Amino acid sequence: MNEQRYGDSERPLTIAMVVDTSGNRGNGTSNSALQWADELERQGHRVRLVGIGAPDFPARVNHVPLVSWVAKKQQMQFAEPSDTLFRAAFLGVDVVHLYTPFRFCQHACRMARQMGIPVTAGYHVQPENITYSAGPLKHAPGIDAIIYRLFDWWLFSKVDRIHVPTELGASLLRSHGYKTPITVISNGYEPRFTPKSQRAAGVPAPTPFHIVASGRLSNEKDQITLIRAAAMCRHTSSIRLTIAGTGPLKRRLQWTADRLLPGQVEIGFHRNTEMPELLRSGDLFVHPSIADLESVSVIEGMASGLVPVIAASSLSAAGQFSLLDESLFPVGDVAALAQRIDWWIDHPDELSAWGARYAEHTRTHYSVEASVRRFVAMEREVIAGHSGARNA
Fold first, then answer.
1. What does the pLDDT look like over 269-321, one tens digit per residue?
2. Of residues 154, 21, 24, the one with CA closest to residue 79
3. How far apart (Å, rounded) are the C-alpha atoms in residues 286 and 309?
């Protein structure tokens, strides 16, 4: 491959995208990979998905004692590395893009390097996501910093470029000593998430008032705060709550909901194809998460015409989506969240008007089409730099 070919900004790219669970939209990382793969192909590029469930380059499942059991509850599996698989998948590609810092992608990185192929990686697994679900381990001094360093040592120091979805993510990596160049690109949302019809001015808030939340059912997503806040609201009797997700805390969350809001809460997994309809059925989107590198679920909610109410947390980038104070509350503050929910129920005209504004803002700034175009530009830059270094 010559330098002129790499410098051709119009030539379609062939990209290998390596993600442990490639055929499952049940978790955010896999969903993002499949979403980008579809859009890349729509824009004329060629994508080779590599991982469990991939159509052309499927990997075997790697069963890790205890860890795999926990991960499976969150719709994730670990893939078994294979030199034969990687050689076949990477032959003739322009670049390899990795999605997790674990064994499968580590091995893929080594194989791509041996084959002389440039490598980029997305930072989709936040160390805090691990430690908040790690029981007593989360209280160990400096544990988050240790995991940041491990991820860098395992993978991110060995790639040509890191993609992160937000400036917060980039700041976190730099603060933990990452030296690899970083590019910030939102994961974006798919066009099937379209705005619902907004109520006319003067029409009161509906009964029941439907609050939607979406995310992994785990400690760092803090859905327990949402359940307690809904039970504290002045309008609690008119609230219906749907928490879409799966994870290790399902039983605990359902038990709490049944005790505080009997018959008013649905908690469980929704297929990705069902999410646009579910979101359009909602009146308010609440995101109480403590730690998030971006949170595509908030973007999808806003694109569907829902006003978000988001936890303001130093470890979460989701707060960046807020367009007004009433869309934020202090992380973990049950009373403050209850006040925000009551405020929006009491102000149906503002709810409708701001829902339309959030939908338009999201359409303008966070489309997956624009994100993938920026991703392709990043990959072309890495490929050209790699070719230049080889020809120097």
1. 998 889 999 999 999 999 999 999 888 999 999 999 999 999 999 999 999 99
2. 21
3. 5
